[in-house]
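Per reviewer request, we include the raw input and output of the structure prediction for the construct analysed in the revised manuscript.
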Amino acid sequence: MVFDFTVSNYGNYAIIGLSGNLIEKSQALSLLEKADELAKENCNRWAIDLDKLIYMNSSGLNTLIQLLIKSRVGGGEAVLFNMNKKITELILITKLNTLFKIANNKEDALSILAV
């Protein structure tokens, strides 16, 4: 399945939904460009919905880290939520759970961003 993303902008925060398989850096270029645009608009608090993300490899992990960096550079935060079992295991194995804030659902992610 091809990688795709959606962005719902709500002023100073956005919900970024990822779907498909994220396995090549080139697949995420438009996502990272959109993240730059959001940051320029002072929208740097992102809830990243991984519900429809089926699979990712190290390139996908790198993309998530780049999103986190882009949000934090602007004084924001990125919260991951709705992760499937494989993605959860990958985040735990790579210890990225120590870098990212992780929520179970959209409501929890938004409450973390509201702090």
